[in-house]
Amino acid sequence: MKTISVYHRPDSLDEAVLLLERPGVTTTLIAGGTTLNTVALPPKTEVVDIQDVVTATAARQGDRVVYGAMLRLADLIAADETPPLLAELAKREGPNTLRNAATIGGTVAEGDSESELLSGLLVHDARVSISGHDDPIPLPELFADWSLLDRSVILSVSVAIGGETASARTGRTPADTSIVAAAGRVVGGGLNVAVSGVAATPILVDPSDLSTLQPPADFRGSSEYRREIAEVLVTRVVAQLGGAS
Residue 130 in contact with residue 164, Cβ under 8 Å? Predict the structure, then answer.
C-alpha cells in the first residue's frame, strides 16, 4: 500500500519549489505519474504534481530543439522538430499507453539504466534546465550527481540537431526491453556513442576502449555477456556511421 498523505497541484513554479523546500516534509514530484506505483515511498510522502507548472512544448531554437519537461513521449515522437533517432528510440520506451502519459522530464529524472531514449539524448548533447540553476546542465553531469535535482524541478531538455545517427540493440524479443543497446551520432567530424544496460544510467563511451565496462548482471545475462554485447553493438553502430572514430 502506498503511503501518500497529501496531493498538491501548484499553479506556479515558485509554489512548487516552496512545497519542495519545506523542512521536515518528505515530498516527491510527479509529472506523467507512470512510475509512482513502481517505487517505494517513505511514510507520509506528499506528492507535488507539476503538470500545471512546466510547459509541454517542442520548439526549435537555433541549432537545438528545446522540449518542455512535461512534453509527453507520444508528442515528442510526433513533433516535426524531433531528430529521427530520438523519435525512433522514444517508441521503445514502452507501450503507447505509457508513452501517452510519460514525459521527457520524468524520463530524464528516472535515469533508467536500460532507456534507449536516454542514450539518444546523450549522443544529441542533451542539456537539462533545472530550477535554481542559471545554466543548463549537460546530461552526463546530471547522471553523475543526482543531488542537482534536490528540491528542484526539471524545466526543459534541449538537444542538438543534425548529424548522421545509428542505433543497435539486443533483447530477448524484438518487443522486449533491450538488454544492451547502443546509439551513435556523427557531426562535424566528431563521434558520440552511448550505451544503455551497462551501468547505473546510460553512458557515453569511447568505442575504442570498452574493456573497463563493468555491467550489472541479472537473469537476462552476466556482466561478461553484457560487456561483449556492448562491444558488438558499438562496432555495428560505428560501422553504420562510416567507421568514424
Answer: no
Q: What are phi and psi of 230, to 5 degrees?
A: -60, -45
What are the CA-CA distances from residue 179 to residues 47, 143, 187, 205, 210 (Å)?
32, 20, 27, 17, 17
Cα–Cα distance measured from residue 1 to residue 3, given in angstroms and rounded to the nearest whole number: 7
Residue 105 DSSP SS3:
helix
Minimal CA–CA distance to 230: which of 142, 114, 126? 114
Asked if 4 and 41 touch (Cβ cutoff 8 Å), the reply is yes
Domains of the chain: 4-49 (3.30.43), 58-160 (3.30.465.10), 164-240 (3.30.390.50)
Residues 161 and 65 sit within 8 Å (Cβ to Cβ): yes
- Between the alpha carbon of residue 87 and those of residues 91, 118, 119, 120, 237, the distances in Å are 7, 12, 12, 9, 17
Mean pLDDT, the chain, as a whole number?
A: 91
Cα torsion through 215, 104, 150, 6, rounded to 10: -120
- The set of residues, in sequence order, having a beta carbon less than 8 Å from that of 200 and lying 6+ positions away, is 111, 113, 143
Quick one: pLDDT at residue 1? 44
Beta-sheet pairing, 45-49 with 27-30 = parallel
> Edge-to-edge strand order for the sheet containing 203-205?
164-170, 180-187, 190-196, 203-205
Vertex 132 angle, CA 128 and 137, to 5° = 25
pLDDT tens-digit readout, 190-223: 999 999 999 999 999 999 999 899 999 999 989 9
Amino acid at 226: R
Does the pLDDT at position 26 exceed 50?
A: yes
Question: pTM for the whole thing?
Answer: 0.92
